[in-house]
Description:
The chain has helices at about 1-30, 45-55, 65-80, 130-180; strands at about 30-35, 40-45, 85-95, 100-110, 120-125. The chain contains four helices and five strands. β1 and β2 (about 40-45) form a beta hairpin. It has a five-stranded antiparallel beta sheet with strand order 2-1-5-4-3, with helices on both faces. It is α+β, with helices and mostly antiparallel strands.
Amino acid sequence: xxxxxxxxxxxxxxxxxxxxxxxxxxxxxxxxxxxxxxxxxxxxxxxxxxxxxxxxxxxxxxxxxxxxxxxxxxxxxxxxxxxxxxxxxxxxxxxxxxxxxxxxxxxxxxxxxxxxxxxxxxxxxxxxxxxxxxxxxxxxxxxxxxxxxxxxxxxxxxxxxxxxxxxxxxxxxxxxxxxx
Length: 180
């Protein structure tokens, strides 16, 4: 009996230690850790969620999106949830509490009960706004370079055409001089 109590106390202490460790990891993460129920209502949020959106508990991810983005994400998520699959690298544009657009990369796993019924999702969102801005800037620069390249090639082709025309005219002129 005493051994059972000691083993139980050790197990409880280990559980408390693990919970504290997990809390510390979540608190120190730059990413947003969240949990939602089967209706996609947030039931847990790390401090990053409050930093990005304010109070999120009781709201859904769609509450923080434009109507068009909400429709797009709802369609994707419905398909994922219907199959009880993990969410993998879902990019979604949100509107933060400051009104600015934020791009989040979402990954999550389904929470299933003992019968395999979907009870919700648990996951992590990473703010990739700066990366998306940089990708857009690179895309714009590549387009500018493409335009410049095409203009350069066209100009060079025109110069070659003009050189050929000058050469032809010179030959024609020389032929006329000889004939005269």
